[in-house]
Amino acid sequence: MLTQVGVQAAKPREKPYKLSDGNGLHLLVETNGSKLWRFRYQFDRKEKMLSFGSYPEVSIAQARQKRDDARSVLAAGVDPARKREQDKIAASIAAANTFGVVATEYLDRTQAEHAAESTVAKNKWLLEDLAAPLANRPIAEISSAELLQLLQRIEKSGRRETAHRLRGTLGTVFRYAVRTLRAPVDPTAALRGALLKVEVTHRPAITDEVKLGGLMRAIDEYDGWPTLRAALLLLALTMVRPGEVRHMRKSELIIPKALWRIPAERMKMRRPLDVPLSKQALAIIGEVWDLTPGNGLLLPSIRSNLKPISENALNSALRRMGYSKDEMTAHGFRSTASTICNERRLADAEVIEVALAHQDEDAVRRVYNRALYLKERTLLMQRWADLLDELRQRSLTQSAAAI
Length: 403
Known about the structure:
This protein has about 400 residues and is an alpha+beta fold. The chain has helices spanning about 5-10, 60-75, 80-95, 100-110, 115-130, 145-155, 160-180, 210-220, 225-240, 240-245, 280-290, 310-320, 330-345, 350-355, 375-400; strands at about 15-20, 25-30, 35-45, 45-55, 255, 260, 275. The protein has 3 domains: about 5-90, Double Stranded RNA Binding Domain; about 100-190, Tyrosine recombinase, N-terminal domain (DNA polymerase, domain 1), CATH 1.10.150; about 210-400, Intergrase catalytic core (hpI Integrase, Chain A). The strands form 2 sheets. It has a 4-stranded antiparallel sheet, with helices on one face. Strands 5-6-7 form a 3-stranded antiparallel sheet. It is elongated, with a radius of gyration of 34 Å. The N and C termini lie far apart (about 110 Å). The model is unreliable at about 360-370 (pLDDT under 50).
């Protein structure tokens, strides 16, 4: 067997020569002085050779370990050279299938499946910005511990909800990688319950009827961009989410039937919804219909007919009316409608839930009909619109009496 002293003392000669270490391993000393580890073996009655690198980069102990590993592969009836080639291919595939590559593919897939623009944008931020440290890592090698470290760093910065959301989005990417045979498991599954619970904060909303009447009057008197005023009124009248009103298209409005048909890709729950339009809602739509050409957006931004009003613009309008972010937000109109409609019993609770397009946890009832309770919801929407008019008038009367 070779020794450290013997290997170091080996000098180049006129021709290359070998220093044997036993069991097929030898050191080839080249004429230029380089010393290369070689392993000779027989497979399928043919003599073959593997290179293990050069000395001293590969030490005597490391070369012997490589030889022993190769002999173990041989004992299992596998050609060590073939296994090395397969390992290189697998490593190359793993390097190509980084988390960043799979995440980009997943994002492209969600877009192709017509996910909401806001959902795609949010997922893009989570996967490309917050998960940036994972981008160049082979997805099959990422461990639960590595993900936990990333998530806890975000959690400790005070963004608990973001950490939970990132864990969920990472999980969808890993499960996609498992389905496409690029990862063995979803490492986020082991992290359930590992993060601190999210502190739920409810969106500010006006639920006092007197104050709501004042808010409706303030919107009526708003002298800013007309589509902003119309958007706020339609938020109040339709009970839908701000994103659904902001992206409302003329082509979705069936005026003769007093109906707004929202496609599934724009709904949070990915289910289409028919929204009955009250007389008051139809009047608002009529006021802004001719402000934009064609069948595009009904409520475009100030800068472009091709872009919708932003939610920030809606909230800014409320601020200019004197309502702070702790009093009312664009999303708060849904809470307002839910609270008062239930308190007033303007319809059965189930009808109100469908009007709000809430998720039905009953697996059987998730088989959803876009026109579910349409007759009842039509009556509810008109009652709600009439109540808003009544609250406006009551607020006006009380203001006049106070003067």
